[in-house]
Amino acid sequence: MENNKWYRTDLVDETEEFINHKTAEERETLRESTGIKVLEEERGRVKITRVDVDSSGAEEIGKKEGTYFTFTVPTLTPDDEEGFKQLGEVLAEELTTLHPFIKDNKDGKVLIIGLGNKTITPDAVGPLAIDELQNSTTSIQERCIIYAPGVTGQTGYETSSFIKALAEQIKPALVIVVDALATRASNRLCKTIQMTDTGIHPGSGVGNMRKEISKETIGCPVTAIGLPTVVDGPVLIADAVDTLFQSIAAKIQEKNSPSSALSVTPWRPSDTSKVDLEVIKPIFGEWSTWPKEERLQLFEESLVGHDRLFVTPKNIDEWVHNYAYLISDTLTEWIEST
């Protein structure tokens, strides 16, 4: 199949080159061959992936040179207070890791920008976080300039130009940009935060690229904090088909197992046993044994010419408000500790 850049994602660990190196050994090969260093760890329920990309690695995976963190709680739900607490604690710790220079610049201002359209819920996490920060303690308001510029479709003016004008006037030590992102994995919707010191391309994950907001365009360090709130429609199709194939193949395999004759409960696929998709090849054909990424590319190519659909959780309002609180509280705590 033709190797097109078919994915729609803002997350560095979902780029095509990255997902093709899934095991520890393959990640090491990726690092050695392309200038990418991948560190993975867990703190409590939070899975942390740090990706350091140099100039050669940037060309390989199509992401800018710099440091990327992703923090994921796979079992997170909107009412999971403990999960959000752990996520906020890790975010605060890594903010300090990424910005050691802030402690040495007590007088330096921090410009915090909330990108997005407040009237569209999946895109509202940035402006809502700004609303929360404006209601926070006096200490952060003395140290920070807080602003939500809206989107180009509302103002008629390039958002990065607003931010550059502010930065030239304020001369901040750091710009922090909060925005909604797109993911290529439905199980990561609203369960992951990405933070990077490379800045951001607003709208890039949904094919609506605006001018870059980064150190190169603004003139000072820019850190982006993003929350994936939408997923491309074909991804959901690919996920559903993959689950269907896995379930049917597992059921066929289990049917031939002696233990299946004793089962008195509804069948469920095992999470521990490996499923051989070759058993469903006579039913569905060759494509049923393709890797999931190739099936996703097939759906993507098949839908060319149709309206693009991006999907968000039905309870996205709960998610977005929870993350607005989390990001506001975490930034407040971090600023007050520096």
The averaged pLDDT comes out at 82
Number of helices: 13
The fraction of residues in strands falls at: 15-25%
Instruction: Please tell me how large the radius of gyration is.
Output: 22 Å
User: What is the name of the CATH superfamily of the largest domain?
Assistant: HybD-like
CATH fold annotation of the largest domain: Rossmann fold
In percent, how helical is the residue content? 40-55%
Q: What is the makeup of the main sheet?
A: 9 strands, mixed
Question: What order do the helices and strands follow?
Answer: HHEEHEHEHHEHHEEHEHHHEH
CATH class of the largest domain: Alpha Beta
Query: Structural class, from helix and strand content?
Result: alpha/beta
Number of domains: 2
Poorly predicted tracts of residues: 1-7
Q: Give the overall shape.
A: elongated
Question: For the terminal residues, how far apart are their CA atoms?
Answer: 51 Å
**From the 3D coordinates, which CATH architecture of the largest domain would you assign?**
3-Layer(aba) Sandwich
Question: How many strand segments?
Answer: 9
Structural overview:
This protein folds into two domains: 249 residues, HybD-like (Rossmann fold, 3-Layer(aba) Sandwich); 73 residues, no CATH class. The radius of gyration is 22 Å and the shape is elongated. Helices cover 40% and strands 18% of the residues. Strand 1 and strand 2 form a beta hairpin. The protein has 13 helices and nine strands. By secondary structure, the chain is α/β, with parallel strands linked by helices. Strands 1, 2, 3, 4, 5, 6, 7, 8 and 9 form a nine-stranded mixed β-sheet that branches.
